[in-house]
Amino acid sequence: MSQRPALFPVLLAGAVLLLVVHGLGRFVYTPLLPWLVEDGLLSVKQAASVATWNYLGYLIGALLAVRWHRVSQIRRSLPWALALHVLSTLAQTQAESADALSFLRLLNGISNGLVFVQAPSLILEWLARQRRVSSSGLVYLGVCVGLILSSVLVSLSNGVLQGADRWWPAALLSIPLAWWGWSQLAKLDMPDEEPAAEAAVKPSGRLLDRASTPLFLSYAGAGLGYILPMTFLPMVASLQVEPGDFLVGSSWLVVAFAALPSPWLWNRLGVRLGDIIALRLSYVTQLIGVLAALLLPGASGIMLCAVLVGGTFLGTVLLTQRLARALHPHQGPRLSAALIALYGLTQLAGPWLTGLWLNMGGSLHSAFWLGAGALFWGLFWMLLVPRRN
User: Fold this and answer.
1) What one-character DSSP code corresponds to residue 158?
2) I need a surface site. Which of 94, 142, 184, 313 has the fewest CB within 10 A?
3) Where in the cell is it found (predicted)?
4) Alpha carbon distance 53, 102 (integer Å)
């Protein structure tokens, strides 16, 4: 009797790649943002614009993943996406203008979107072949560790590096991690194409139907709802709490530590309660977190938002991806890519709408009402997703 292949090396490789592109690529910008503004490299409005270009790249990367959704295509494009990430991150260390940084963040976002879709999709398909799909959410632990690592790197280098040089720690660490992660996934024993299954009715190739459409609409709310606190919370903390308060320099660290156990927790809740019930609970939790930042004064609201949103947003991602595959198991990677593309589109709208609000004289803090409304929208549509056994 053949032994079942070990899960740990595969899950670890996927987690490392998500750590690289999300922790050292996307989210390192959040703790860096106040310092880049203080160094004079960016203004607050330019910082929001740079974030928008990164989210546009993420959307482009996810759309490319919709096109390149087959296993053979993922094997070809994933290493190139990782190379693009490493090169664009290295180039950011030389970006002395907002325009140059915007272009490089666009490229970095493209690589992030591709890897964030393709690496978990490849692993999920492999797990499905091993009949161990319930472990899929653990891949997202890499994002959580990446949040902590990005915060630590920024904190340790503060006072030593300034301006564009602040990107160096993330850039140098990305190189060996990206190489190791791909070298492990390249060894996965999977056929490039699944054999055609004999069935009385050929599975539909439609992405949207009565089951999946509410899930797509709900996920749009999730993308817009979480991106405002996850991008601007440290900046809001610096404006809302007293100078010298712990949260001025460490609100992102609170988010990171809250996120650390979240893939295991929400993965477990999905198994115990069912992915649909767990997803509804995740929307409620995030909504409470954003409302706390809006309605509670100063440090208490910022702290509660950091804990609840930080500890929940990845649960929404992993549960949605797994539920989507359960609804349409014959087109898992394609559906995953389409969902991430939609998520990327609504994330792109977040900083853009925030910029419009600031130009109209609104405050960064009051822009969080947009996030609260988006999460309420997501919860409403999540109630309409039908249950599946």
Assistant:
1) B
2) 94
3) Membrane
4) 6
Hey, what are 247's tokens? 């949260």
- What single string gives the DSSP state of each residue in 38-88? HTTS--HHHHHHHHHHHHHHHHHHHHHHHHS-SHHHHHHHHHHHHHHHHHH
Calculate the CA 171 to chain-centre distance.
Answer: 19
Dihedral angle over CA of 335, 313, 358, 43, nearest 10 = -100
User: In this predicted structure, what is the pLDDT of residue 197?
Assistant: 46
Whether the model clears a pTM of 0.70, i.e. scores above it, the answer is: yes
| Long-range contacts of the stretch 244-249 (C-beta < 8 A, 24+) | 245/299, 246/299, 247/299, 247/302, 247/303, 247/306, 249/155
Q: Where are the domains of the chain?
A: 8-188+209-382
For residue 332, pLDDT beyond 70: no
Class of 8-188+209-382 in CATH:
mainly alpha
What is the pLDDT confidence band of residue 290, given thresholds at 50, 70 and 90?
A: very high
Taking alpha carbons only, the member of 126, 111, 122 closest to residue 178 is 111
Phi/psi-derived region of residue 201, left when phi > 0, alpha when psi is between -120 and 50, beta in every other case: beta
Total count of residues recorded for the chain: 389
Distance CA 181, CA 220 (A): 30
Q: Which residue has 């309660």 as its token pair? A: 273
- Bridge partners (DSSP) of residue 161 are 158
pLDDT in tens, 189-224: 776 655 444 444 445 567 777 778 899 999 999 988
pLDDT band (50, 70, 90) for residue 378: very high
Q: Is the pLDDT of residue 282 over 90?
A: yes
- Residue written as tokens 């997803």? 279
CA atoms of 148 and 256, how far apart (whole Å): 5
CA neighbor of 86 nearest in space, from 175, 173, 23:
175
